[in-house]
Write a structure and sequence with these properties.
The protein is an all-alpha fold and about 325 residues long. About 70% of the residues lie in helices and about 0% in strands. It has a domain of about 120 residues: Serine Threonine Protein Phosphatase 5, Tetratricopeptide repeat (Alpha Horseshoe). α2 packs antiparallel against α3, α3 packs antiparallel against α4 and α12 packs antiparallel against α13.
């Protein structure tokens, strides 16, 4: 009899859950919400060894509230879900989303210490269970780095993204699509920190990645070359800027023709750079804000794995 009752409850749970999902997909949100609450009530009385049925529907309803910007309702469900963290592995999607959502909610409310603590708690658990060089810890490192960027703590974000870069390169190679996100984040951080040489280094890395992935005639490679030329112009590296701008113009010509407006506009910029380069003396034809004869390396022995670079030299 008890087993039969359990079967009836499970069948009812599944039937109502599917109907709730259907109403949600059709935009009938209030009806979906009411059905989700019924499913939760059933899941609370179902006798199971672990709260998987309950956590699954709590997760869906919490996401629904988050989508509706109902922070108070979603917070209650995320907090209840986190109480079941012992039943989840450290990289289970429900547990990870629960921590991320609670951290972001606290950040929006100005509870920055609590938000940071949640990210660090998850990172510590993942490092313990998965290893501190596991590819699976990269999402939490990215989230924590993004949190630091939003607070203007770019030095902390830099160290985390460099750690992600080393991990991804080991597992995925130096030219994988996944690495491009990290490189792009580091470019932005180095610009914020006015570390122009490191920004240029990462932009060259990005150009190489995009070349390997898409080929030299790709517009995304040309766009990267344009941004690189802009940075090199700002740092008085005129010859390098000319090379990258010329490369981008040729790609645009091949795609749109010589009379296309983007080509004409870029050609005008190139003419200006050429005149600027001609006005420089032969001995100092490429003036830079730093010396360029020493290599840039990643110091893997450093706890933060920061880039080791030569001291800047005033132009």
């Amino acid at each position: 009899m008890k087993q039969e009752l359990q079967t009836v409850r499970l069948n009812t749970y599944n039937t109502i859950l599917q109907l709730a999902r259907k109403h949600r997909a059709e935009g009938l949100y209030q009806m979906a919400e009411d059905l989700y609450k019924q499913v939760i009530a059933i899941a609370r009385v179902v006798n199971e060894p672990e709260p998987h049925l309950l956590s699954a529907v709590l997760y869906e309803l919490a996401n629904y509230y988050e989508f509706q910007a109902k922070d108070d309702q979603s917070e209650l469900l995320w907090i209840e879900l986190k109480a079941y963290e012992q039943y989840f592995t450290s990289n289970h999607y429900i547990y990870v989303q629960c921590v991320f959502s609670l951290a972001q909610l606290n950040e929006r409310r100005g509870n920055l210490d609590r938000s940071e603590a949640l990210y660090k708690e998850l990172l510590k658990r993942q490092e313990s269970e998965l290893g501190d060089e596991s590819l699976d810890i990269c999402p939490i490192l990215d989230q924590l780095a993004a949190f630091y960027c939003r607070q203007g703590k770019y030095n902390l974000a830099e160290a985390l993204h460099l750690r992600v870069l080393v991990i991804k390169e080991f597992y995925l190679g130096t030219c994988s699509p996944e690495i491009n996100y990290t490189v792009d984040a580091l470019i932005d951080i180095f610009k914020k920190l006015t570390k122009w040489r490191l920004a240029e280094y990462m932009m060259n890395r990005q150009k190489g990645i995009l070349l390997a992935l898409h080929g030299k005639d790709s517009l995304c490679v040309a766009s990267c070359a344009l941004r690189l030329a802009e940075l090199q112009t700002d740092t008085k590296q005129i010859n390098r800027a000319i090379d990258n701008l010329s490369f981008a113009i040729q790609v645009y010509k091949n795609k749109f023709g010589e009379l296309a407006n983007p080509v004409i506009s870029l050609q005008s910029k190139l003419d200006t750079l050429l005149i600027c380069g001609m006005e420089m003396s032969f001995a100092s034809s490429e003036s830079s804000v730093y010396s360029n004869d020493e290599p840039i390396t990643i110091n893997l022995d450093s706890p933060n794995m920061t880039l080791a670079v030569p001291a800047l030299v005033t132009a």
